[in-house]
Every structure is written in structure tokens, then in C-alpha cells.
Amino acid sequence: MTISFVWFDLGYTLVYQEREKAFERFLLEEGIDLGIERIELAYHLADKLFMREYPGVLGREPSTFYPWYIGVLNHFLGLHFDLERQCRRLRELQRPPERAWRPFPEAARVLRELHGMAVGTGLISNWDASARTVLEDAGLLSLLDPVVVSSEVGAAKPDPEIFRIALERAGVPAERCLYVGDNYYDDVVGSAGAGMRSCLINRFGSRGVEEIGAATVLTSVGDVPAYLRSAVDTAYSYLEKRRQIR
Question: What residue segments make up the domains of the chain, in order of their start?
């Protein structure tokens, strides 16, 4: 496999929010200590349920789904609260002193490492007008080119059109591209419709995505360079064996 360009999703692929810590603080105020690991898994499962059952909802204005989402989260944790009171308090606890979205610690390193491998990097994301500001604040904007955002181009994943726009801007063929994201339906299925290969970021292995078909699953964006090297080595070994047989 020869990959010359890697495209990335934005939320929970390159950047994240510290929402689990806010939820843990809320529970501690209520006298409940479940541990951050259990809360992180519950958020993961809620995310995957929404991605599977309610496509596009997580990309909307939070006020249109937030109480619904928190109710599902409570269900996974076996909790029951007055949702209006709980959501109000969580919003207060989630008000960040600086920026809401933070880069994963390995994100910038991965992009620079790919550049060192002569692999281009770009972004294809379903996001509002804040996408470039989020990238700039995270120190990632200069490492991604082009940046293709749904709110700017009028098409959104999994529609193959947003991927085609990105390919045209980058001037690379789909078969030379890899797409990396955390949403199987938007990212893996969507990029496949445009002829790209893909990797699914899923921190908890198969948890929450047990229903998916054959897909390459990585636990973190930090695994992408090693995956590319492994794939290239495998392809080289195969071609070398064919050459020797001939």
C-alpha cells in the first residue's frame, strides 16, 4: 500500500474536551465516586451509540441534544438525576479557563512525523465556523493543508462530495489517501465511498463498535505513523516475494 496523503477528522481525533473531569466533579459534589476510567468508558459508549443510531446529532448545536445525551450517559452509569439541574451544573463546570478544545498530546508530533515521511496531511471535518480557530489554538493549523470544513463547502461527511472537494484541493488521487477518524459511519464509510482507505480511532478497542465490519482500528492517533510503516513494509514484502517467484 502506497499512501502519500493522510486526512484527519477534528473532534476526538486531533482535539478533545475535558468533559469527563467535569462530570466526575459533579458526581463528587453529589457524594458519588465512580472513578474517571468508568466515566470515560461511559462517554465513549454514549458517543458511539449516538454515531450509530442518531447520525449527525453530535455535530449540531449542543442545546438541541445535550440533556438527551446526558440522560444516555446516566443510563450507562446507572445514575438518576434531575436532568435540568444536572445539565445546568455540568455547563458551569465545563466552562474552561482558557480554551474548550485541547489537542491530544501526540497530535502535533504525528503530523510532523508524517511530514518527515514525505506524507501530506489535511483535514476533512464536519464543523462550524470555529474549526480554524480550534486548530490555531491547538497549534495544528499550520500542519494541515488543505483544511476542508463542512460549514465552508456546503457538504458534510459521510457524503462523498466533501471528500471529493478535499481530493481536488490537495491534488491527490483517492487511492493514495488514508482517512483517520473516530466515527465509523461518517469517517470509514464516508471515505470508502470516495475511494479512500481508512483507520478508525477507537480508544477502547472494539467497545462501542461491535457492529462494524472489517475496519482497521487504532487506539490513538499516535499509532498512525507506525501503521503506515507497517502497511508499506507488508506491501514491499509481498512485491518482493512475487519478484523472486518470477
Answer: 5-14+101-245, 19-93
Contacts of 130 (CB under 8 A, 6+ apart): none
Gap between the Cα atoms of 214 and 36, Å rounded: 31
Distance from C-alpha of 246 to C-alpha of 32, rounded to nearest angstrom: 68
> Could you give the angle at the alpha carbon of 16 between the alpha carbons of 160 and 216, nearest 5°?
50
C-alpha cell at 83: 436532568
Instruction: List, in sequence order, every residue forming a beta bridge with 197; answer none if it has no partner.
Output: 178
5-14+101-245 has which fold?
A: Rossmann fold (3.40.50)
- What's the predicted TM-score (pTM) here? 0.89
With a CB cutoff of 8 Å and minimum separation 6, the contacts of 226 are none
CA distance 38 to 213: 26
Tens digits of pLDDT across the chain (246 residues) = 589 999 999 999 999 998 999 999 999 999 999 999 999 999 999 999 999 999 989 988 888 999 999 999 999 999 999 999 999 999 999 876 546 899 999 999 999 999 999 999 999 999 999 999 999 999 999 999 999 999 999 999 999 999 999 999 999 999 999 999 999 999 999 999 999 999 999 999 888 988 887 789 999 999 999 999 987 544 333 334 444 444
What Å distances lie between residue 76 and 80, 103, 145, 244, CA to CA? Answer: 11, 27, 39, 55
